[in-house]
Amino acid sequence: MLESNLSRETNLAFQTDLLYIDVGNDRVGIRTNAPGAFALDVNGSARVVNNLTVSGNLTVDGTTTTLDTVNTTVEDPLILLNSSGSAGNDSGIMINRSGENNAVFYWDEDNDIFKIVTSTSTADSTEVIDTAFANFQLNNLTANSLATDGLSIEDNTISSTRSNDDINLNPAGTGAVNVNNSKITNLANNPTADQDAANKKYVDDQISSISSSVPSLGSFTFSGNKLTQGASNADFEMDNSGTGNFVFLGTSGIVVPSGDTASRPTAQTGIIRYNTETAKYEVSQDGSTWTSLRTEQTAKEIVKDVFTGDGSTTTFTLTTTPESEENVIVYVDGVMQEPTWNYSIINGVLTFDGIDPVSPGDSSVEAPHNGARVVVIQGLAESV
Q: For position 5, what pLDDT does the model report?
């Protein structure tokens, strides 16, 4: 019987359908006596304890495929989801988060866009219900366009997607917005606040407005804190209208022009300068000559020299050396002598050799007579 059963031309059944061999169609059925179009047709669950290799295609008909493995390796470069092509279904990858909203990376069929969200939807849903957008971190991102909840980046254009929203550039800490030496163009509106950027036209208009209200600088130029008059040899004039004065404020001082005697400018009435050669301020009161100013009043020692005439001596050496005849007073027996007319002083020596100023050819030289009291008083004033 075993030999005849091992070589059969008719079907063989064990317990009706526990194991059924369809000899005519070369099929084996387990728990079915009508194997389908498969070499092995199992009606019920099956388990392979060790490895299973399927040389051909593997088709699973059902609603759920569960892989309880540590690692899953797929050789295919492309994985097709939604292969049935059911229109209107959202499709993607869902991660179960055990008690939390699931994480989903999916294609939103209604909006034609990929999303990364958290969701209360489950794996058997045909539509993903978003609860929140999920964070997404990466190194570099290349995209033709990028949109956030309030901002759109398309090619090289950044736009606000909400009407009347600002676009804020906010560097952290002390960082700055750096445009890499490029221009910022198309500033549409004029500035209204202190920190607003100004466009070129606004600046030009302001300069033009100021220029129209400010007198021409003529030949004057500014450089740092220096005002220069450029017209050759012209006076530097300041004119104050009405009765107002020229008032210099502050606690410093005014430095007047200075130079030696040889560098004096042409004298003008009221001109003042400092003479570095005489160490004195000098002015012109008549528009032609220069006079030194007395800048310090100090007490002078009055010196009196007394000499006795002998009728022939005409020269007397003084104790001090006055600058000129006008700086001394000379008496002969109580009679005041006139400078130049009666005497001269050269290098501290008083000489009675006066010359008549009216008739220079006439000499008024006369030595003090014998016993005459000659008194010379010095130190009354400096030279004028």
A: 62
**C-beta contacts of 322-329 below 8 A and 24+ residues apart:** 322/348, 322/378, 323/382, 323/383, 324/383, 326/381, 326/383, 326/384, 327/378, 327/379, 327/380, 327/381, 327/382, 327/383, 328/376, 328/377, 328/378, 328/380, 329/376, 329/377, 329/380
**Model pLDDT for residues 73-96, shown as the tens digit of each residue:** 888 888 888 877 666 789 999 999
The CA dihedral of 358, 363, 369, 374, to the nearest 10 degrees, is 60
Unique residue bearing structure tokens 């006369």: 366
Interacting residues of 315 by C-beta distance below 8 A, sequence separation 6+: 349, 350, 351, 352
Joined tokens for residue 214 = 């400010």
CA distance 219 to 229: 6
Reduced to 3 states (helix: H, G, I; strand: E, B; else coil), residue 105 is strand
Q: Point out which residues pair with 227 in neighbouring strands.
A: 222
SS3 204: helix
Over residues 101-157, the pLDDT tens digits come to 999 999 999 999 999 999 999 988 889 999 999 998 999 888 888 877 888 888 888
Angstrom distance (rounded) from CA 337 to CA 354: 10
**DSSP-derived 3-state class of residue 194:** coil
Q: Would you list the domain boundaries of the chain?
A: 2-42, 91-133, 258-292, 303-378
User: Going by C-beta distance under 8 Å and a sequence separation of 6 or more, which residues neighbour residue 222?
Assistant: 228
For the chain, the first-to-last Cα distance in angstroms comes to: 166
Cα separation, 81 vs 73, in Å, equals 17
Given a contact cutoff of 8 angstroms between Cβ atoms, the answer to whether 93 and 104 are in contact is yes
- The C-alpha angle 297, 301, 307, rounded to 5 degrees, equals 140
Q: Which two tokens stand for residue 165?
A: 């929203």
Asked whether the CA dihedral 211, 216, 221, 226 is positive or negative, the reply is negative
Distance CA 3, CA 120 (A): 63
Q: Which residues contact 29 (CB under 8 A, 6 or more apart)?
A: 17, 19, 20, 21, 22, 35, 41, 42, 43
